[in-house]
Amino acid sequence: MSVTWKISDQPVAYPEALRLMESRVDEIVAGSAPEHVWLLEHPPLYTAGTSADPADLIQPDRFPVYESRRGGEYTYHGPGQRVAYAMLDLNHRGRDVRRYVWQLEEWVIRTLDAFNVKGERRAGRVGVWVTRPDKPPLPDGRPAEDKIAAIGVRIRRWVSFHGIALNVEPDLSHYNGIVPCGISGYGVTSLVDLGHPVTMSDADLALRAAFDSVFSGDPA
């Protein structure tokens, strides 16, 4: 099955994105539409996953807050962050959610490789991380680490939606209103914050190439 792609040039309201995603997932389930990847940005907002702790919403009046029904806790979306919603049919890609999350992480890691940034997984922490030797070490002496990409997944009849959120050049101060993904003690970074003058178009090209390398061999 082929995968179609869409890039939205203007920020998309979160409720509208949810509506369109759910509609496309229903079509994929019905066999009337192909798999789809949608690249977009949102206006500044917070989303609450199914495991969100209200105590992690530090500034509830700062930006709109939406229930997302994806897995995970609170996260931030906003301009300068490339959100990639992946609507893929796992019936044809192996009904293995853990493997799928690994593939989403690998998608980000290979995208970052294009900019000579080493993204890494961390046990017990979903998402992609980078070490920051330029920052003071953690209290236990380990190198500082910042999160550069978040991952959230929902599955309906083995069709995925939601996906990844890669920080290209968002306003990192906007993360101060939440405990991102319920994980404290770590920072948040972006490609530009790390000193890489990456445009959104650059990121999109790298995401497309990395997606093909991770997922192209999977469909039955």
Describe the structure.
- The protein has 220 residues and is of the alpha/beta class.
- Helix content is 23%, strand content 29%.
- The protein has helices at 14-30, 97-113, 200-215, and strands at 3-7, 35-40, 45-48, 65-67, 74-77, 81-87, 120-122, 125-132, 144-156, 159-167, 187-188.
- The strands form two sheets. Strands 1, 2, 6, 7, 8, 9, 10 and 11 form an eight-stranded mixed sheet that branches.
- Helix 2 (97-113) crosses helix 3 (200-215).
- The chain is globular and about 55 Å long.
- The N and C termini lie close together (8 Å).
- The mean pLDDT is 94.
Give a brief rundown of this model:
It contains three helices and eleven strands; from the N terminus they run βαβββββαβββββα. With 220 residues, the protein is of the alpha/beta class. The strands form two sheets. Strands 1, 2, 6, 7, 8, 9, 10 and 11 form an eight-stranded mixed beta sheet that branches.
Order of helices and strands: EHEEEEEHEEEEEH
Oligomer: single chain
Structural class: alpha/beta
**How much helix is in the residues?**
10-25%
What value does the average pLDDT take? 94
SS field, number of helical segments: 3
How many angstroms does the end-to-end distance come to? 8 Å
Topology:
Layout: E1 3-7, H1 14-30, E2 35-40, E3 45-48, E4 65-67, E5 74-77, E6 81-87, H2 97-113, E7 120-122, E8 125-132, E9 144-156, E10 159-167, E11 187-188, H3 200-215
Parallel strand pairs: 1-2, 3-4, 9-11
Antiparallel strand pairs: 2-6, 3-5, 6-10, 7-8, 8-9, 9-10
Helix pairs in contact: 2-3
List keywords for this structure.
eight-stranded mixed β-sheet; 220 residues; alpha/beta
